[in-house]
């Protein structure tokens, strides 16, 4: 019951955070357009560093994207629920629970200056800033990640959208949990990693005139130096993409409301842990998923 109560409290906190962020966004950045959705995805091949592979997870998400006078906002809150292979505590049969929040604001230089910066495949240029934050209850790490991001962005001239950014990352964490080597608990004061870069792309591209689209993101993240335990971190590759079908367009119903599809995640050296070292195969996730979305 403790784990379920903790998950409920985190869901309540996320709800309050969402209301605050979206309320602030609507006050400061009057939206020209917006799209808000709730989604569910499920897979049985998730992995966690230093743990076993083939963890099953249900992931619920709230996503908001909007455009305003000077750029775009993106907000996503994932609520992740693992099975018992990723336990919530030592000796527990309850799975871990996690909330992971991402916010990005991309300023469009063309909109700000009223000039055109199009050349070749590049449609416009700008800058992106934002943050990541998470809280997880699990047996070994109990992540409390905090991260700020800032850097230039180019918007590519493709059907739909594709943005490519080079971001500086300022990341910290304050883990705690069970140390299996000493059979005792541990906790670490908030530790700040070396500032490091990330090359990232996000896209949503319709497939011709069909009801299908290709959506997703990829992150290439450099090493963040030593971790909080003094170990060297490794560069990460995190690719997550899906083919989605617009159910309304297929069936003659409302378009852009219900979507279903298949998703795949390839995440090597997850969180900077060496998949060839002590973190083991759990630091290399190759995860197919099913996905469903409702847009409103």
Give a written overview of the molecule:
The protein has a single domain (2-295), classed as Outer membrane phospholipase (ompla), Chain C, CATH 2.40.230.20. 12% of the residues lie in helices and 54% in strands. The protein contains 3 helices and 15 strands. The protein has helices at 2-28, 109-113, 247-251; strands at residues 31-46, 55-68, 71-82, 97-108, 122-137, 146-156, 161-173, 176-179, 184-187, 191-192, 196-206, 212-221, 236-246, 258-268, 284-295. The strands form 2 sheets. A 12-stranded antiparallel β-barrel has the order 1-2-3-4-5-6-7-11-12-13-14-15. It has a two-stranded antiparallel sheet with strand order 8-9. A hairpin with a 4-residue loop joins β8 (176-179) and β9 (184-187). The model has no long low-confidence stretch (mean pLDDT 92).
Architecture (CATH level 2) name: Beta Barrel
Number of strands: 15
**Shape, per Cα inertia axes:** globular
Q: What proportion of the residues is helical, as a percent range?
A: 10-25%
Order of helices and strands: HEEEEHEEEEEEEEEHEE
| CATH topological fold name | Outer membrane phospholipase (ompla), Chain C
The biggest beta sheet is recorded as: 12 strands, antiparallel, barrel
> In CATH's first tier, which class applies?
Mainly Beta
Tally of helical segments:
3
Structural class: mainly beta
The Cα radius of gyration reads 20 Å
Number of domains: 1
β-strand amount: over 45%
Rounded mean pLDDT score:
92
């Amino acid at each position: 019951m403790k784990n379920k109560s903790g998950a409920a409290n985190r869901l309540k906190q996320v709800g309050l955070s969402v209301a605050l962020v979206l309320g602030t966004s609507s006050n400061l950045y009057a939206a020209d357009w917006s799209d808000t959705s709730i989604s569910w995805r499920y897979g049985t091949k998730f992995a966690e560093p230093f743990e076993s592979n083939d963890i099953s997870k249900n992931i619920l998400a709230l996503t908001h994207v909007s455009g305003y006078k000077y750029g775009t906002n993106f907000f996503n809150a994932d609520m992740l629920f693992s099975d018992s292979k990723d336990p919530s505590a030592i000796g527990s049969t309850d799975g871990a629970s996690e909330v992971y929040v991402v916010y990005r604001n991309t300023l469009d230089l063309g909109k700000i200056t009223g000039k055109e910066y199009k050349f070749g495949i590049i449609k416009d240029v700008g800058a992106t800033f934002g943050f990541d934050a998470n809280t997880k209850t699990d047996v070994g790490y109990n992540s409390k990640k905090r991260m700020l991001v800032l850097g230039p962005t180019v918007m590519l001239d493709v059907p739909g959208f594709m943005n490519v950014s080079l971001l500086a990352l300022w990341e910290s964490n304050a883990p705690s949990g069970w140390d299996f080597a000493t059979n005792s608990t541990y906790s670490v004061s908030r530790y700040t990693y070396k500032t490091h870069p990330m090359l990232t792309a996000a896209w949503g591209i319709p497939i011709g005139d069909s009801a299908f689209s290709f959506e997703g993101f990829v992150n290439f993240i450099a090493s963040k130096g030593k971790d909080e335990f003094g170990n060297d971190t490794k560069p990460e590759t995190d690719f997550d993409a899906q083919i989605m079908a617009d159910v309304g367009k297929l069936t003659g119903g409302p378009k852009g409301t219900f979507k279903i599809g298949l998703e795949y995640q390839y995440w090597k050296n997850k969180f900077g842990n060496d998949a060839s070292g002590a973190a083991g195969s759990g630091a290399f996730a190759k995860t197919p998923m099913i996905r469903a979305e409702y847009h409103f």
